Amino acid sequence: MPRRNDIESILIIGSGPIVIGQACEFDYSGTQACRVLKEEGYRVILANSNPATIMTDPNFADATYIEPLTWEVLAAIIDREQPDAVLPTLGGQTGLNIAMELFERGLIGVPGKPEMIGANAEAIATAEDRGKFKVAMTEIGLESCRSRIAHNMDEARVAMAEIGLPTMIRPAYILGGRGTGIAYSVEEFEKLAASGIEASPISEILVEESIVGWKEYELEVMRDHADNCVIICGIENFDPMGVHTGDSITVAPIQTLSDVEYQKMRDAAIACIRRVGVETGGSNVQFAVNPADGRQVVIEMNPRVSRSSALASKATGFPIAKIAAKLAVGYTLDEIPNDITRATPASFEPVIDYVVTKIPRWAFEKLPGASGVLGTQMQAVGEVMAIGRTFPESLQKAIRSLELGYDGLGCHAGEDHLITEFADDESLLVQAAIPTPDRVLHVGEALRRGISIEVIHERTGIDPWFLDQMSLITEERVHLAATGFAAMSARNWKRAKQLGFSDAQLSYEWDVAEADVRTARGAAGVVPTYKTVDTCAAEFVAETPYHYSTYEDETEVRASDSQKVIILGSGPNRIGQGIEFDYCCVHASFALRDAGFETIMVNCNPETVSTDYDTSDRLYFEPLTKEDVLNIIEAEQPYKVIVSLGGQTPLKLAGEIPPELIAGTSPDSIDAAEDRERWNKICDELHIPQPPGGTAVTVEQALAITETIGFPVLIRPSYVLGGRAMQIVHDRDHLAAAMAELAGFGNLGKEGGLSAERPVLIDRFLADATEVDVDAIRDHTGEVLIGGVMEHVEEAGVHSGDSACAIPPQTLPSWVIEVMEAYTASIAKRLDVRGLINVQFAVAGTTVYVIEANPRASRTVPFVAKATGVPLAKVATRVMLGATLAELRNEGLLRPPITGHVSVKEAVLPFTRFPDVDPALGPEMRSTGEVMGIADTFGKAFFKAELAAGTVLPEEGIVFLSLADHDKPAGLVVAQRMRALGFGVVATEGTAEYLARFGVEVDRVLAKVQDGEGVTAVDLIANGEIHFVVNTPRGRIGRADGAHIRKAASLHHVACVTTVDAAIAAAQGLSERHGVLLDVKSLQEYHAAGTTVG
Q: Residue 220: beta bridge partners?
């Protein structure tokens, strides 16, 4: 069936900001869809609120709407664009839910309105509605868990009485297991059922029998209009049921099913997609198998491209999202060629002759108060994937890809901590039975101690096959220790490497330098070979070079005479280093390809656009470690290596790579900016003001600095990203505790802690200062391009990644902007920057202080590019390879920035997932993603950004104010503005008294939570009587009443701000929004209508 010609324009609904459960895998899928549909000649309209995505670049769609993802906004876009069809299956749960809201209002999927392609409303409802899905599965003879549907607590209690405890609660239409849980008691059931009903958009939960401890599997299925179905990939969970699949280690292909069991599951998955009615595209079907008797049940189905689809796509080389988009417009699987082989159609099921292991990455160190125990609600913020010929090899590669200080399974410094903390075997087994991020290490330590596989299986529920494979690693370690470094033969080296041992592990085991291990291994002739991911287990020739390393006899890397540039990616997503850096790496590849270079991407993140097989000329899916990167450099012999676009991960490797290979700013200059002592000297030399302070390695040195500059102080470690371990410290005891935490195993300790090479900077904290970010590019002639000047909404003390910011600046005098631009140019010159630099300033009174400079890509680059129309990452990449800014202007790549509108970036925070974490903002970054609002005024743009971030600013109701003393003057302005908009105002006693002094009476004075008497803000929030919370922390975050109030607001989804500046901005946004419909406009229109400067 050829492509459909009865539709001309297609609206793709994106997934919005990066949140837990929905990350940049949907940028990968959306980007693939936009590209292929444009190539097919369709007009592509994209709606997405996330500026950090590749898909929202204006050249990927014909009309790109960076707007809040709500049904009202989408309705306005549909009204403007009049698309023929809507494709909702590539935008995660967000895309599906919005599509269903539009359908229910008769705006899509009904006669006379845009058609829903990929999956219609009935198919989505059948898969997402727990009750309908169970009925559908029963109709086709597939077993599911015993269960009942409930829409309120009375129905839930009846269901619990029938099903019995323990009980699983699963809300309908949710993302990342939000609201799910296992209840072992009536009290737990009451709590979980209530939160599940609240989490579901349709107030529906499934109360089902618990299958904790069963084995969990997923199959990725694709179907076309002709009812051809193929299984793309089978995935098996390492952890038994009870851990969300997004938080579990997973392995492909499936390892522990017999062929009969697998074929049964395969048939069930195909029957499932047919019955649900997903007409075209990919779906993910999840199964559980009872290890005791082999009973197989269907858990759920996602009628869309999912997180697992990205993993399956990267694991097999099969471009699921691209094929899904083609199927949606009429093609059948047999009509679509396989890009990698170019000899087989997409109807050939992929076959793989290697093992893929995915390990999630969490950010509990950023979220004090979180339990750190994994369960049925997803908590991971990112993941890594590794490929090896065997499970031990891929597991060890995946562990070292995490960048957590572990070089593999055992043989690293963290092992001493395990031995000390769990001195006896029983305590270790108790810990291994609890699912935590370090569980695989606990299991590895148990095997090393000789605890039997049977005992470990009994305590953890992990399949004996995985434990047996892991024991090969621990047994080999014993052999290596017995053999010794000097006696290693080529055969011994090869066996160790085939089991995934890194040079760093061997260095630790033998207590010799890693460089000596590398030299000896090379002398023995044991070097990696690179195999190809080809979808067909080498049955056909692979035309696309997508490689992984192993230790065999034949390498599959093709020789090339082209000038090659290696781009080091950013590794796993984490708080502080996310999709923004992948954006920069992808832009580098695009820019260098256009300039005639052969591009080579190195990364280990399966969610990203950078690890698409067609983003670069060659892809190496490898850990970003010294050993692995040097191996690729030796194999490829590149002209240059780019280290400054992928965040801190590649920067840490800059000193290990031959200096002549580093593109752009030299490693020494990068170090000069990162090393706090060298940086201080540079600022003194340039006479650029810094907050008073100094560097310290010990508590005594730190206390000596505070004796001079006083409290409060800001402490900042060296060589970190995302404000890692930064704190505002208010007294000597707090300072001692903070220094101890940095030096110990916790937080930063496992990554190096404090040393003369990694000192901590202690600055006087500039309260009430305005923070500003400047992004710039400098070329080798010395010309400096100021890319963007961003004024933060929140005052100093809130990490720049968590603060809203605006382009152009809204309150800064022009002379302040000129001073910052001059300082930026001076710093760039002193560091001899060749490429990007980000400089952060604090403006206090009439003084402009420099906080820090980063001669690399910053997380603001994509936002600046969308706001100004200047492709900063592409321009910087060309500059790093020797082009001048003048030459790039002549080429047309560098254009003048566009003005005439206001752009606001807002952070998206994860606190709804962590109700025990205080959502007050501070100097350590905690946001997982970002959104952007664009409008003709700041107020409208800020309102859009808040709406996009999920903070629904109420247009009526009651505002609660509870302010720290130093915030009360500005709080008076907030109260007056909210009153003028018709809001009621309630406050705590101290705030109410202050407001009354200036003639602002509150409607009600609330009691303090800690007093235990009277009505409190927590009570009114729980009752739905407070609609907006303004609560600023007093002193250290997390103290007393404020923490309870902020947690209550987060739990009950009440808009809450923790800085008075954000409250003023919200009031301005509400004022400009008052009675005015939100207007929508595409990015292309903003860029066409704006004025250019320069």
A: 233, 284
